[in-house]
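Standup notes
- DV: blocked on the single-chain target, sequence here:
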Amino acid sequence: MSRLGIAVIGIGPGSLPHFKSLQDLADRVEVRWVAARGPERLAAVTEYPTTTDVAAAIADPTVGAVLVLTPPAAHLAVAELAFAAGKHVLMEKPLELSTASARALVAGGRAAGVRLGVVLQHRFRDAGVALRDLLTSGRLGRVEAASVAVPWWRPQRYYDEPGRGTLARDGGGVLLTQAIHTLNLFQSLVGVRAVVAAQVRTTGLHQMETEDYASALLELGNGAPGSLLATTANYPGRAESIDVIGSLGSARLEGASVRAEFLDGSRFEHVSTEGTGGGANIMDFPHDAHRAVLADFLDAIAAGRDPQVTGEDALATHELIDTILAKGRAA
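- DV (later): unblocked, structure below
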């Protein structure tokens, strides 16, 4: 099997699980370039060719796909270079700073006829896959209610880093930067068709521009009630969770584990002690799900299909976040 040439654009602390995944899949993918605007970030890269010329790295004819790991403010510009060159794109979340730019990015990928995948890796974690199987198999019956919670913690020093928690760098607060992963998984499992009410705040625990607390009452895809809580002010941070109440039983996903109990007395359990990055150590998680995202992206290119997490999937979560923020700020 010939290896796909890839250019990695952007490098920072969040790139570590991506580079581990690229190493694991070295029989399928070859890193042709690691590119960043600032040479200081590239100094630590020793195993791959590096360049500060992002456009040249993308235009390289040996490059078939681009992995975009830059801050979100640069996503659209980098993606447009890739689309113009006919290159497939795997994009870190969020798609862009604003939903308008995110829409333009997704439309650009479709118009170029290339594959656009988004790194929302919770969709590939074993617990999320197991909960999806419980729902699609009908074991839980009809969804009667569901809730999602991301009770995380970030110390003030996290937000003291230049740009953290600002609209100019991150595009948003806890919803767009942290909770987007679990919220996207929640949407994919039970659907969300309306935001009934919301509260959005910046608590006294942080000095930052954007929100560190959000809650909402939701209407799920089938009309059942739902709720959301997301914060980075819950010291010392607890694992994110999704609870589903079904007509035949209930299930709870918490971190990397899922448990279900059914009205007939039977049970299901998938237990893991893996970290999920909910506390001060934001990289406290394995890279298995990132590797699965990359493997699916490579499979999609080879098969001529969409990746499991498409630009449209991510865009739906952006739009939901916008609605929660608008309702919460108007309250």
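- Follow-up: The chain has a mean pLDDT of 94.
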